[in-house]
Amino acid sequence: MGSQGPGGPPGVRAPYTVLLLPLGTSRRDPGARSFFLWLQRMQALEREQDALWQGLELLGHGRAWFEGRLREAQQRQLHLGALGENFLTDLHSEPRGPQLAQIQKVNMCLQNLIQEKELSRQQKGSIQPKWKTAQPGCPKMQQGPTRV
């Protein structure tokens, strides 16, 4: 269908095509029903693979973005350290509050996604309590102290 080869994701994603072949039997036939369910499962797996490839591509871009912001923050810290007590004369430094909150939210969402998958692997089908599952709003996780 739309699966990616070992070389990675293609540049253009083809739309899904579903081909239904007449089986010459009724809709209640177990073979026809089994084929239909198999086809549905294959499509779901294809959609999951496409989402994972897209996520992998976004993580690559995200990694580059995070590395750039990290270098900038390190440079600002060095600059501020060099100013010492005269830091109030630096009119170029701006607080990064809203962006920091967004970065922390992204980090929490990624950690929740990874932890949820790890927990499901460990529990192998056992049902998790509702309070332990990650919610779509990416709830706050416990954070350690920031090291300076």
Automatic annotation (TrEMBL):
Region of interest (Disordered), residue spans: 121-148
InterPro entries xrefs: SAPC2_1/2
Name recorded for this polypeptide: Suppressor APC domain containing 1
Origin species: Ursus americanus
Gene designation: SAPCD1
